Amino acid sequence: MRNPGPKPELKWLNVEKLYVDSRYQRNTKSRASETNLDYLKKSFSWSLCGALIVCFVPAEKKFAVLDGQHRLVAARSRKDIPELPCLIVSGLDFEQQAQSFVAINTKRVKLNALAAFHAAVASGDKTAVMLKEILDECDVEIPLAPVMKGLTEPRQMQSPGTLAGMVERYSRKHICWALKIVPDAFGEKKGMMRAMLIKALTEFAKYTEDVDRARMVKVLSGLDPFQLEVDARACVSIQGGSSVQAMVQALDRLYRNAGRKNAAA
């Protein structure tokens, strides 16, 4: 096992004693960085800050920030945070500083969307809590960890982000209609709670008056959602538009054809 090296020192440092070496640090001018900085400026909290990782550079007579650039920039912009907690590692030359930066930012286990959703619910985030209420009402769950190959259980879906976007466009009634009808149609088949299908069904329900639920269940039970997505994308490549809208049109045709068959019978 590798020797961890000298024990670092934990110390509060004035923000003016900290600097960012642009030769290996990322640029903060990207949209993602600006969004993160705006959040940190407005919502700065010691419980969310943690200690920056820094290294003293004799030539600069300052401490280079290896991890915590956004927190430093946010603290400076606020003007009311003169010091930050820092974990000071020693004995790193420029190359080793760059190596540390890369390791810190690439070896982390990234928080996936599913875990982030459950954490947001626990933290009381309004949108996440509302989504959880909708899911509970429909007896659908977001798994705690990604399900491989998309083989989710009949009442599981892995797209909290899709649902979050939908609540801004659709009513709770229409979203619940879509979430409930998929397991009704496909029974115990796995992987059917697909984001595009849920969006297409919600859109269909929004613009179709007096939907015959039994008829749509019958239509869906004879479909392959995977192939429906493939066909929709192929249609878009030829005619343009969106895949979801192409799916809505396909569902509408099948639904109306089923209605005519029922009437003829």
Q: Bin the strand percentage.
A: 5-15%
Count up the helices. 12
Radius of gyration: 26 Å
What shape does the CA trace take? elongated
Largest sheet: 5 strands, mixed
Mean pLDDT: 91
Quaternary: single chain
Helix content: 40-55%
Count of distinct strands: 5
Widest sheet: strand ordering: 1-5-3-4-2
Number of domains: 2
The unreliable regions are none
Derived from helix and strand composition plus strand pairing, the structural class reads: alpha/beta
Structure write-up:
The structure is a single chain. With 265 residues, the chain is α/β, with parallel strands linked by helices. The chain folds into 2 domains: 9-106, Conserved hypothetical protein from pyrococcus furiosus pfu- 392566-001, ParB domain, CATH 3.90.1530; 113-264, no CATH class. It has helices at residues 31-43, 46-49, 69-78, 94-106, 113-123, 126-137, 160-166, 172-186, 195-207, 213-221, 225-239, 243-264, and strands at 9-14, 18-19, 52-57, 62-67, 83-89. A 5-stranded mixed sheet has the order 1-5-3-4-2. Helix 1 (31-43) packs across helix 3 and helix 9 crosses helix 12. The longest helix has 22 residues, at 243-264. It is elongated and about 90 Å long. 25% of the residues are buried. The mean pLDDT is 91.
Key descriptive features of the protein:
10% strand, 265 residues, Conserved hypothetical protein from pyrococcus furiosus pfu- 392566-001, ParB domain, five-stranded mixed beta sheet, alpha/beta, single chain, 12 helices
In short:
This protein is of the alpha/beta class and 265 residues long.
List the helices and strands and how they pair.
Layout: E1 9-14, E2 18-19, H1 31-43, H2 46-49, E3 52-57, E4 62-67, H3 69-78, E5 83-89, H4 94-106, H5 113-123, H6 126-137, H7 160-166, H8 172-186, H9 195-207, H10 213-221, H11 225-239, H12 243-264
Parallel strand pairs: 2-4, 3-5
Antiparallel strand pairs: 1-5, 3-4
Helix pairs in contact: 1-3, 5-6, 8-9, 8-10, 9-12, 10-12, 11-12
